[in-house]
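To whoever is covering the structure queue this week,

Two jobs came back overnight. Logging them here so there's a record in the thread.

Job A:
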Amino acid sequence: QVQLVESGGGLVQEGGSLRLSCTATGTMFSINAMGWYRQAPGKQRELVATIGGGGRTKYADSVKGRFTISRDNAENTVYLQMNSLKPEDTAVYYCNVDVIVGPLGKYWGQGTQVTVSS
């Protein structure tokens, strides 16, 4: 099994910044894609950003130019730098990884709350 531990959420004012991190731990595994999703109250979970094993990135239109996803392969960690935050960014943010060697499958973090006040 692979476990994901997220950190970095919190309360921030509109226009502020936060950095989320998610580290995968376990035994004998390799990760391909890593990503961040979010779910606001009463809404479906949606993709925020993904990064492939080769570093190719994809962003939701709503966060382009404001959020940056990155990864540290040696540490099995994915980051989400969030700048110019808006109240509509308020949600629980979940990381997701695609394990391709070892315990195959897609794994989710426990979620971290991000709240942006106006």
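Job B:
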Amino acid sequence: QVQLVESGGGLVQAGDSLRLSCAASGRTFTVAWFRRAPGKERDFVAAMTWSGGSTSYADSVKGRFTISRDNAKNTLYLQMNSLKPEDTAVYYCAAGSSWLGRAKSDYDYWGQGTQVTVSS
């Protein structure tokens, strides 16, 4: 069992930056960020392998968001730059055994989510 706890969400203006953190109680092969905008499904944002650092990004965030991890702290990060109002969502950390999976079903463990609101 892996427990995930997100933090770092908040209210920012368009163009601002924000960094989300996800503290993990253990490690799995892949960790990821998903988000759920109001009235929409939970969508893939970015994924990373704990060991090799391979990454994958959704097209909508490529070039603006960066996923990273601190092995010593067992913590996953999502650096979000040039935020847009359409980035407003609840952001979830996830962990699983697939190779950079993009489907919710690829992940076994989920955090409780942290709200990010971007005003125009």
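Note for Job B: The two ends are 40 Å apart (CA to CA).

Please reply-all if you pick these up so we don't duplicate work.
Q.
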